[in-house]
Amino acid sequence: MEFLLQLVLNGIVIGSIYALVGLGFVIIYKSSSILNFAQGEFLMLGAYVCLAIFTTARVPFAAAFALTLVFSVVLGMLLERVLLRPMIGEPVISVIMLTLGLASILRAVVQGFWGTDTRPYPDLFPSAPIMIGPLPVSQGYLYSVASVFVLLLLFSLFFKYTRSGIAMRATAFSQQVALSMGISVKRIFALAWSIAAVVSAVGGVLLGGIRGGVDGAFALFGLKVIPVVILGGLDSVLGAIVGGLVMGILENLAGGYLDPVFGGGVKEVAPFVALVAILTFKPYGLFGKVKIERV
Amino acid sequence: MRCGDFRESYAEDMAIFESPVSRWLLALLLAALAAVPLVATAYGLDVLLRVLIAVIAATGLNILTGFTGQISLGNAAFLAVGAYSTAFLAGRLGLPFPVVIPLAGIVTALAGMVFGVPSLRLKGLYLAVATLAAHFVVEFTAVHWESVTGGVNGISVPAAKLGPLELDGDRPLYFLVLPLTALLLLFAKNLFRTKVGKAFVAIRDHDISAEVMGVNVFRHKLLSFGVSSFYVGVAGSLLAYQARIISPENFPITLAIDQLGMIIIGGLGSILGSVLGAVFITALPELLRLATGALSDTFPGLVGLFAPLKTGLFGLAIVLFLVFEPDGMAARWHTIRNYWKLYPFSY
Amino acid sequence: MERTMRRIGRCLAVASALFALGAQAQEIKVGGLFDLTGITSDVGKPYAQGVQDGVAWVNANGGVNGKKVKLISVDYGYKIPEAVAAYKRLVADEKVVMINGWGTGDTLALKEFVNKDRIPYFSASFAGDLTDPSKTPYNFFVGPSYSDEIRAWLTWVKDDAKAKGRPPKVAFIYFDNAYGKAPIEAGRRFCKESGIELVDEEIVPGNFQDATSQLLNMKAKGAEYAYINITTTGVSLVLKGAKALGLSTKFGSNPYGFSESLPAVAREAAEGVTGVMPHVPFGENVPGMARVLEFHKANHPNDTHDALYVRGWAYALTWTEALKRADKAGKLTGEGVKAAAETLENFDLGGLTSPVTYTPKDHRPSTKTPIYQVKGGKLVKIAEYDMPRKPEWLGL
Q: A190, A274, B268, C132: which is deepest, by most CB within 10 A?
């Protein structure tokens, strides 16, 4: 029983970071119908940039973190302007490929600058575990789950009450209608990419703190989050959260119970198998909007 | 004087070779390629073989993605199926290559059709992700079905054999791969002059309209998965014969992405595009390797920078092509050729 | 890293320029297959630098009987296909006389090629499979085999747990690849033979980020000791994860997960961890270290090095000796170098590692296996075991 609980708990922790990165996917998809395969690279870049600012500029970590967020906003806007805008009206596969190309470039930049060694992260969280009932939980995990949920709450409020948030939802609903209401769709796109870069950077820094180091494997999170967002439905914020938690737990249960049977590897493949099974019955994910096509 | 490219009948419009000149040029190119082993270094021949194999695989992917509009991230997995089938058929059963290669293609075609079933309900991104799942399932199988695949250690593949004839090494193998590539390209070119090929294109352009016009969409989608995977399976089989040892590491997800890159850079829905793209994406890292290799005596640090440079250059090529020439190299080639065809009376 | 590379670059460039004036024909080409960017690059890079520096030192100190060694380095990213392609190029076009390789997977994949082409292949993989010359006549390594290492560590476990008065419970944690699995069968058999209870085996993928579910499983099975057969970065993740879960298991690691960089990366989680160290830490007070330190001071005094770097040196010194002997015999060919290597008997590396012996019947260079422990962030030698050369352990 304790074993099961511990697995679920670990699933929730990992799942909350999936949810955070998934949120980035969903925000971009909602406003511009682009699936950003470079999301994992955003996460990795954020973690590296924060560390680089911290170690070279010798500022407090909080300041380095704030600067990283500024960097992410600028990066998002820049990418949107230079790369994504020319792609408006191109087929889906071209856009997918563009984000894959972007992912390659970002990976190369990180590897060129920082190499492939694991760079040690400063101790963000105390290392002694806290006991929740019988379960020892690392404090870093608790902080990250808490910050993930604060962020998710903030975004829900943002979409509901702020001008920009409402404008983004309007753009997602129909670009033409949004344009005719005087909303600058280009500005909304830039905003979406900035937000996506920011949430990924937050995820990257949290992950760096939990792991105690950052390396190129952080980029794999992008690939891991794809089943999450597809499961939840590409255009649903709620879906990203539910999908993240479900996949995190599923992955850990598969790791705990099936890996010993198969000799490893089930943890990695289980999310994809579950995904195909679910897509067979719900082709637009759990919470995705069903598209009705007409000739 | 005829100063233009006039097509006066449907037959002319659908001809494989637009003019006798292009036919001659192609024959010349083939002859030149056939003569390459006489002059090439071992390394050059190795690269050329990999280019030809990539051409076959990219053509297969283009049939599915470029002509039928079904995005697939499962190409590396299909290559793996073809390669492992070859390891089994040639290694375990000791069959000769004229049997092994088509059989590997057929096995892969069947696998492709199984993974194509979700395309009945899934479209666009959702289908892309379902094929991504196929990739991970195949990878898992390759790692864990050790009795057939050899697991993570990989499995050796014997040289391609037919009776006393043994194609041991790149040089003899080249004379199998080159004609096979030419044959498969010819078949692909012809495919899109037939009813089936035109149905593929109709599905790509608008599947619902295609259905309204009487195309059985599901059947043709599956058929497209089948034909495409057959090509990829043959490529996988040749890859196994060339590498002589295959392991799951031969088929990473980045390989699938490379192949999508080939058809994007070459040109979606163009046989010529598959060829140009495959040449470009395979040769690019090799040129880079030559460059870093030549400079590494003076800058040994370059050896370690090769990998990031390779990744970055690939990404940069993709991004630049998409932004500046979204229709690919094939389209650019046609523009250039048409300009010279009418030169100097290009108005 | 880059700075060091550049510096090595400069001195290599100077060396090679000086020597290009002399005679191009007096060059011995050797291939170097290294992992500088793959999943084992954390340990692959210091090793590669060690080999390159060792070669530079040999070239600066008389070379191979006056001939210079030209090491052609390739980064294969720990990918078998890349290694096969690079191998073909090195052998067919560069015509190298031998190769200094790296990983287990690629070395095993290439073993048939090197046999056919008669290319002596010194790789950094200590896989027991490579020690039987009747199967792999051209494969060599420098140090005790992975199998002897796991046996030695298990022997230490037995000694450590004597007070308990019952068999200790041991788990293995290893990579899902040829390297990870290399010593496992030997370990299993040794446990059975010597009354150690093997309670669990956990497999982690090559680029894992989180080993919690594996560690929980191990905890559920009640493992008191665990041998980690992965590389430093992964070991550090496992140790940190174990600390976060409050596990009391005593961890040990194979030589690619245990060096000075382990306490640097894992910090307090590394405290008390044991590890097999066939090559001494950098700067250890042994006679053979003098030339290493001298080279280090002359070329890159500000860099930090570790036992992996020393391992690279040990390799370079060993195979250049084989080259010297082959050259003296007038047989600077693959076959000649292999035969020359097999004349090495208790070849002394000044304590960088145990003396090296190869015979035509046995390619186990040495069976002495030191065990170190992290104490206060430093590596301290706590035991050394000499595993017997049992005939049934050859090739296992």
A: B268
